[in-house]
Amino acid sequence: MFIDKAKIFVKSGDGGDGAISFRREKYVDLGGPDGGDGGRGGSVKLVVDPNMTTLMDFTYKRKYVAGKGENGGRSKCYGKDGETLIVKVPMGTVIRDEESGKIMADLAHKDDSFVVTKGGKGGKGNAKFATPTRQAPGFAEPGMPGEERYIRLELKLLADVGLLGFPNVGKSTLLSMVSKAKPKIANYHFTTLKPNLGVVAMPGIESFVIADIPGIIEGAAEGVGLGLEFLRHIERTRLLIHVVDISGVEGRDAIEDVKKINEELKQYSVKLWDRPQIIAANKSDMLYDEEYFETFKAEMEKLGFNKIFKISAATNEGVPELMKEAAEMLSKIPVTELEIKEEDRFVEEEKKFTYTIGRAEDGVFEVTGSFVDRLLHAVNVNEPDSLRYVHKVLTNKGIFDELRELGIQDGEIVRLNDFEFEYLL
Predict the structure, then answer these.
(1) 193 labelled as ligand-binding?
(2) Per-residue pLDDT reduced to its tens digit, 134-158
(3) 32 assigned binding-site residue
(4) Is residue 159 annotated as involved in ligand binding?
(5) Any binding-site annotation on 313?
(6) Residue ranges of the domains in the chain?
(7) Would you say 380 is a known binding-site residue?
(8) What's 1-155's CATH class?
(9) Which CATH superfamily is domain 356-422 in?
(10) With contact defined as beta carbons under 8 Å apart, do 423 and 414 qualify?
């Protein structure tokens, strides 16, 4: 089975919490704060594995979570960082953010890797909050939460040459003749359901990878059948060999087939349509009217194609010459990276802790949101020093200014989740 698309959930580890601790030693009555920082959470990293050829593994496992960072300890001991989770993917995998649909990375080379979610930063221990005026802070910073998102993996085959054409024109037979690939071959009027890769290695030429792309049908560029899925696989190819049935035995018109296929390519991608093409007029051993090939060749030249080969994949007639021409053309075509438009590129948004302020139904001013959750997680509201820290954070964040703009009066109640206090001017 060939699986070329998968959707998975990835989550990096949360950072460990900073510790609240004080020195407790013999003969030391009032030891200072010695709470250590929490460890950073583990990241999720996608790494190319050259031995993988499909995304099949991701049909069985769809959730990937990295390890959490350890909490800080006493004596200024730092928590251990969470372990990075390595997820192996095939070479040629494109990573998309599921929510935005934008491309995060293109893993097109053997040693490529990409950190798809970064681990949360560890929180500071209370030793870091000690100042000349706050010598025994009873609070510490919680670890930052890890990132999480759904991502879509898309596999785009890495082949130098793509075999192009309608179903049943002989692409699979040609592939089997020029490489050790063993595609299933039968006289069916429907397309191969998976791309087949083979390596062409002939004396006197540089070897190259060739792919039998599943047959394209009319309407492929609009997504008819599996058209868009298959068109995607030829985006990376540098050269196209367009195979047509020249015999006419099954009622196909070779000239019209070339026009239709190229129209589909043009609708899908102008750059793909503009890629170099060799026309391979196949099944010549079954051609009854020899003059038709000359007519076909003249029409191809009118369309701008000047590399036309008369071949028979079944008997190998003309096939070595076709492969040598392909190798010669490849030697002059540079390898190009998959182009990602700026508007299609994923940009990581800065993580922010937010809050909202409003008056609740009971008349109390209420402040809620991730900023409040994080603040209250860090402090002990029953400890005076911690309360002074809360007041300082709320002031620096501008929350008291916003409350005054909303018309809060002296003595009114402010609620932060389950914690309430009286506002004093």
Answers:
(1) yes
(2) 888 888 888 888 999 999 998 876 7
(3) no
(4) no
(5) yes
(6) 1-155, 161-330, 356-422
(7) no
(8) mainly beta
(9) GTP-binding protein OBG, C-terminal domain (3.30.300.350)
(10) yes
Question: 153 a known binding residue?
Answer: no
Facing residues of 374 across strands? none
- Residues with Cβ within 8 Å of residue 69, at least 6 apart in sequence: 13, 14, 15, 16, 38, 39, 40, 41, 42, 79, 80, 81, 82, 119, 120, 122, 143
Residue 245 annotated as binding?
A: no
Residue 159's alpha-carbon distances to 207, 261, 276, 366, in angstroms, are: 12, 20, 14, 60
**pLDDT digit string, tens, across residues 322-381:** 999 999 999 998 876 666 777 777 777 767 788 899 898 888 999 999 888 888 887 777
331 burial via Cβ count (<10 Å: 0-12, 13-18, 19+)? exposed
Task: Report pLDDT digits (tens) over 170-208.
Answer: 888 898 888 875 544 444 434 445 667 788 888 888 888
Let me know if domain 161-330 sits in CATH 3.10.180.10: no
Do the annotations mark residue 111 as ligand-binding? Answer: no
Q: Is 283 annotated as a binding residue?
A: yes
Distances (CA, A) of 254 to 11, 300, 320, 416: 52, 10, 22, 74
Is residue 203 part of an annotated ligand binding site?
A: no
Q: Is 172 annotated as a binding residue?
A: yes
Check whether 113 is labelled as a binding-site residue.
no
Q: Is 169 annotated as a binding residue?
A: yes
Q: pLDDT by residue (tens digit) across 41-93?
A: 999 999 999 888 788 889 889 999 999 999 999 888 999 999 999 999 988 89
Is 194 annotated as belonging to a binding site?
Answer: yes
> What is the residue type of 54?
T
Tokens of 229: 């899925």
Q: How far apart are CA 149 and CA 353, in angstroms?
A: 17
pTM for the model stands at 0.67
Q: What's the confidence (pLDDT) of residue 289?
A: 76
